[in-house]
Amino acid sequence: MREACPWQLDSVVWELTLRCCFRCAYCGSRAGEAREDELSAAECLDVASQLAALGCRRVNLLGGEVFLRPDWKEIAGALIGLGMKVCVITSGFILNEGCLADLAALGVESVAVSLDGPERVHDAGRQAGSYRRALEAIRALTQRGIPTSVISALRADNAPLLPEFYETLKDYPIFAWQLQACSPMGNARAGGMDTCFDPLAVLRFIASEGPRAPFAILAADNIGYFTPEETAVRGRKGAYFGGCSAGLSTLGIDSAGNVRGCESLYDERFIEGNLRQRSLRDIWEDANAFSYNRRFAPEMLRGKCADCAVGEYCGGGCRSYNWFAGAGLYENPLCPRQPEEGAEG
To answer: Tens of pLDDT along 242-253?
Structure first.
């Protein structure tokens, strides 16, 4: 008999389609055209049932652009009907009255709009007019009473502009602003984009502005870790980064049914199986799956992470960022911790 799986699936990032209205200069998945072999509506509804059977609590739907998939509403509705919370991540570019009505009727947990910074920066990476359309989407969503947040992917060109961008965002009734590092992958890597920025400056910005901001300002799991600002940037008192959750409590599913521990580990080497060949339960409960995290030990840490006082807790930070930054899986080149900072940092 199969031993009971010690890992409980909590949340999933599901790429419904690779079709997108943009070809962003930094898109990690290189979205644009839909894949030829994307899951059918029936297959997606079956995946929703499999997620529910595994006890998944939350699903984040993204693309490409979610609203370019004609059956997105049926898929989101099935997930919600099975007891899962659903967040939709969008550029806001094609959000229309029909989408707004559907989102409100479905009762999605929230909608996250991608905004990269001031208009000149945002439009340069996407297309002219996309910034204004994103702000219009935020306004329309919040007017409908739909909880709305903003996600910004930080790079060399926009990270220094956070104070300027905050002056715009603070006038919008969003509930959160998430700051994450733009990973050097996909279009960012192909185009030679400079993704380097000062992470400590970002953490200090959050710690400084967060307490008086009209919404939560949060650092994503690929920025940190364990600096004096740690609890201020994780969203609640006493919170801290507990290590990469890929394959431990989270999963990524792409539009062709490939399963990874994290959808940001966008490399074929991290595909654990395909939902057309194996059930989600079979993949999740496979004793050999997600071994980079399920069999992690502090001795696997490399570089400065190997000598860090909190290495055993942090686990080397974000696996995806580490990998695409060329540092392997177990050393974080973006970590701002100083060698002299102790475990209480």
So the answer is: 999 999 999 999
Q: Where are the alpha helices (DSSP H) in the chain?
A: 41-53, 72-81, 97-106, 119-125, 130-143, 162-169, 186-190, 199-209, 230-233, 280-284, 291-294, 303-306, 311-314, 319-324
Check if the beta carbon of residue 108 is closer than 8 Å to that of residue 81. Answer: no
**What is the mean pLDDT of the segment spanning 25-46?**
92
Cβ-based neighbours of 184, under 8 Å, separated by 6 or more: 193, 195, 324, 325, 326
* Gap between the Cα atoms of 56 and 50, Å rounded: 9
Q: Is the pLDDT of residue 2 over 80?
A: no
Do residues 184 and 319 make contact, with C-beta atoms less than 8 angstroms apart?
A: no
Structure tokens at 201: 């400056």
Half-sphere exposure of 51 (CA within 13 A, CB side): 34
- Cα angle 86-88-89, degrees, rounded to a multiple of 5: 145
CA distance 43 to 117: 37
What is the 3-state composition of the chain as percent helix, strand, coil, each rounded to the nearest 5? 35, 15, 50
Q: CA-to-CA distance for 178 and 151, rounded, in angstroms?
A: 5
**Structural contact between residues 138 and 112, judged by C-beta atoms closer than 8 angstroms:** no
pLDDT (tens digit per residue) in 145-165: 999 999 999 999 999 999 999
User: Strand, helix or coil at 5?
Assistant: coil
Rounded CA separation 9/56 (Å): 5
Q: Provide the CB-side half-sphere exposure for 102 (13 A, CA).
A: 17
| Residue owning tokens 């000598």 | 307
Whether the Cβ atoms of residue 11 and residue 57 lie closer than 8 Å to each other: yes
Contact status, residue 122 vs residue 130, Cβ threshold 8 Å: yes
Residue 343 has pLDDT above 60, yes or no: no
